[in-house]
From TrEMBL:
PROSITE patterns: DHHC. GO terms for cellular component: endomembrane system. Pfam families: CRAL_TRIO_2, DHHC. It comes from Lupinus albus. PANTHER family: OS01G0948300 PROTEIN. Its main location: membrane. Its EC number is 2.3.1.225. It catalyses: L-cysteinyl-[protein] + hexadecanoyl-CoA = S-hexadecanoyl-L-cysteinyl-[protein] + CoA. This is S-acyltransferase. The DHHC domain is required for palmitoyltransferase activity.
Length: 531
């Protein structure tokens, strides 16, 4: 590892400390201290073996004391070029561990080892590390299985480890190395491959055909959606003679109803094709825009006559230029780093899209893209709901609910006037009405739920996975960290979502969280603190 150490030894130590690669906290069910090691956090390129050994000797081993302990090693997302120190380095680290520490180590929980690491250890493990250690290894293929050995509250597991569990549910072949567990890349040049591709046996899904049925089922759902609407309206006009009469007398009434139908259908299709805000597109936009900005500012410094044109670009350029330093990092990296600036959490690069994820972004396995302010993947629409189309989605819910209500009203008035006329017509109408009522309840609840999310600036994903998400962990339940007050939230939701700069929320400052968790007083109610 790291012959190319580019930072001083002191800085390397500080880096290990800051990244919390090694953390001693909690106990397993047999009362042994837990030394948690997150492989993904290990900066193998920047830290030398000597510094690592020194760090372990001075900062980690003394804290373990003379008591029995276990190691919880998280291998999830470890990339050979970034986080893997190399076999010879591992060997020398192992050799440097004092004998008494080795004796006290009773178990190693190895999370997400993958088939390749397992095969490697099965072949060379005994030779490299002594049979004693090899016998203490426990492979944990899903985080859920860890709870057999360790209580949930005892350890902090980063969100990406849980995400990997979800990945495995979608791509079980990943467990066996048949599908890549990293670098399913859109933008990376192919020249990067050489040593890494032998580690992950293929670059990308081996079975692209699997993605086809998903698209097909989405088409079927859309067809079913249109058919259901047509059936409801057609049956109404077929059976209900009064409605036809009424249409002749008051055409505006029926026209309004049909207009609502058309608007709902259009909104449905518009939402299903609207971009939910993909991180990859945002990254390209930011990088391109800033390239333009730099060019513009160069030319504007040469000619004063272009003042008007450059003004707009300058304002936006400044917003992300807060931390611009002359390094190789792209503008997007700087923007994302800025959003994370208050937190010790490092920026996280999606292993599928190879894009640095801003806070609140999540990779969707159905769309196979990272979505900004990911809410959920809607099967009914065949599209993700995120920052870009959440507003549209809410309007669609409103329109569909209104349409359901109106249709229900028309069905009920027909049944009231015509019940016992033709029995089979009544049966059809009653069955359709029951289905309509169920849909209405579901839609109404969904609409209210999303209204609540909008008012508090949350997403479904954040609400459901609150305890798992790194940036939400430790924040009291009733505090909504991204909320800027009801009015501001609604305004931002409706009006500001089109711009990448305005719609990306930075992680809140600790003072802000403290202020928000302050209990409500009478004065707060009067002054409308929540608004
Ligand atoms: Zn992604
Ligand atoms: Zn999706």
């Amino acid at each position: 590892m790291s012959c190319n150490a580019i930072i001083s030894e002191l800085e390397q130590e500080k880096l290990l400390e800051k990244l919390q690669v090694f953390k001693i906290k909690g106990k397993d069910k047999r009362g042994r201290k837990i030394l948690r090691i997150i492989g993904k956090f290990f900066p193998a390129r920047l830290v030398s073996v000597d510094v690592l050994n020194k760090y372990l000797e001075e900062k980690v081993f003394p804290k373990l004391g003379k008591r029995k302990f276990c190691v919880l090693y998280v291998h999830t997302g470890v990339n050979r070029s970034e986080n893997f120190p190399g076999i010879s380095a591992l060997r020398s680290i192992y050799d440097a561990i004092p004998a008494n520490v080795k004796e006290n180590l009773e178990a190693v929980y190895f999370i997400h080892s993958g088939l390749q690491a397992r095969l490697f250890l099965a072949t060379f493990g005994r030779f490299l590390f002594s049979a004693g250690l090899y016998g203490k290894l426990r492979y944990i293929s899903r985080v859920d299985y860890l709870w057999e050995h360790v209580k949930r509250k005892e350890v902090e597991i980063p969100e990406f480890v849980f995400d990997h569990d979800d990945d495995l549910e979608y791509r079980p072949m990943m467990d066996y190395g048949l599908e890549s567990d990293h670098a399913r890349v859109y933008a990376r040049p192919p020249t990067f491959d050489s040593p890494i591709s032998t580690y992950s046996m293929s670059n990308g899904s081996m079975f692209p055909i699997f993605s086809l049925p998903r698209r097909r089922s989405s088409l079927w759902l859309k067809l079913a959606f249109v058919t259901i609407h047509i059936v409801y309206i057609a049956i109404l006009f077929l059976f209900d003679g009064d409605l036809v009469e009424k249409t002749k007398k008051e055409p505006w009434y029926t026209a309004l109803y049909l207009l609502l139908c058309a608007v709902t259908l259009i909104q449905y299709f518009a939402t299903s094709i609207a971009s939910p805000g993909y991180a990859l597109n945002a990254m390209r936009a930011v990088n391109e825009r800033n390239a333009v900005y730099r060019k513009t500012s160069e030319t504007s410094s040469q000619s004063a006559s272009s003042r008007n044109g450059s003004f707009i670009v300058t304002v936006e350029g400044n917003q992300i230029g807060r931390s611009v330093s002359g390094s190789n990092a792209t503008d997007w990296s700087k923007l994302v780093a800025d959003l994370y600036s208050v937190s010790p959490i490092r920026t996280w690069t999606c292993t599928y899209c190879n894009v640095e994820q801003p806070p609140r972004t999540k990779h969707c396995h159905d769309c196979d893209k990272c979505v900004l302010q990911f809410d959920h993947h809607c099967v009914w629409l065949g599209n993700c709901i995120g920052q870009g189309n959440h507003c549209r989605f809410w309007w669609y819910l409103c329109e569909e609910t209104a349409l359901c209500l109106w249709t229900g009203f028309l069905y009920v008035s027909y049944l009231k006037a015509h019940i016992t006329w033709v029995w089979w017509q009544d049966v059809i109408m009653i069955l359709l009405l029951i289905f309509l009522a169920i849909s209405l309840i579901f839609l109404l609840l969904l609409m209210l739920f999303h209204s609540y999310l909008i008012l508090t600036n949350q997403t479904t994903y954040e609400l459901v996975r609150r305890r798992r998400i790194n940036y939400l962990r430790g924040i009291p339940e009733r505090v909504h960290p991204f909320s800027k007050g009801v009015c501001r939230n609604v305004y931002n939701f409706c009006c500001l979502r089109s711009s990448v700069y305005n719609s990306l929320d930075p992680l809140p400052l600790p003072e802000e969280i403290e202020e928000k968790s302050r209990p409500y007083t009478c004065l707060d109610v009067v002054t409308g603190r929540c608004c």
